[in-house]
Amino acid sequence: MAGKIVVFANQKGGVGKTTSAANLGAYIAEKGKSVLLIDFDPQGNLSSCFGVSRDAPGIYEVLSKQARLDEVVRKTAIEKLEIVTANINLTGANVELIDQRDREYFLKRILDPLADRWDYIFIDCPPSLGLLTLNGLVAADFVLIPLQCEYFALEGLSLLLQTIQRVQQATNPGLKVGGILFTMYDARTRLAHEVVEEVTGYFKDKVFRTIIPRNIRLSEAPSHGVPISRYDAECVGAKSYELLSEEVLRRV
Ligand SMILES: Nc1ncnc2c1ncn2[C@@H]1O[C@H](COP(=O)(O)OP(=O)(O)OP(=O)(O)O)[C@@H](O)[C@H]1O
Ligand SMILES: [Mg+2]
User: Fold this and answer.
1) Which domains are present in the chain?
2) What's the gap between Cα 108 and its chain centre?
3) pLDDT at 127
4) Ligand 1 pocket check for 13: Cβ under 6 Å
5) Quick check: CB of 178 below 6 Å from ligand 1?
6) What percent of the chain is modeled with pLDDT above 70?
């Protein structure tokens, strides 16, 4: 069976896309599934999470046909977890793709032939609804939407959902919303409660039950180049991502 392609998308910045892709990928790999992470953000944050150099060829070189995907796949400290890096060059892809016919299909064409080499491929999108995110949505089987538990979290969500619907209608009818996941939850604030209640009331079983709390250890791990499971497996952030990974495995 071909691997499942999962894209982490939300055009809002700093909501936990990269942190979720990194840690869920790591836990799922530790549970024995093979996972390929694709850093699809010119910021290259996902690459940094694993301490791999962003200078070597990565996804940009594949998009621009200077390399093949299998030539740029790199190992991480975790067995069964591999990564394709990104760096600032990837901003160029936005510009270079724009005049191409089929500009939304580039990533799909790269992934499809090799997708069955992994159980899961996770794509970490940049904070925009531009061509990179569109390529991610067109290539994916599932989209996961991290939401920060704060007021502005909801602004932009309807635009993202409209974009997903457009992609479903026009280019990728197989795309499913795998779930909405709450990140950086602060139990002390009333607002966080309210956001969770409102979104859950509306999206019901599309919402993952496991909520990721705000936890400083999660923000520290990337500077050590390891996921939370290898940095502090006992902290509440680690426990939450581990639980969430089980839910993700049941759903996607
Ligand atoms: N649960 C959490 N608790 C505390 N800090 C967190 C948590 N999740 C993420 N962070 C931190 O918040 C910041 C934003 O998270 P992250 O980079 O994962 O968001 P993003 O959506 O990928 O951002 P961007 O839109 O810029 O790509 C990072 O510094 C990260 O370490
Ligand atoms: Mg990110």
Assistant:
1) 4-251 (3.40.50.300)
2) 16
3) 97
4) yes
5) no
6) 100
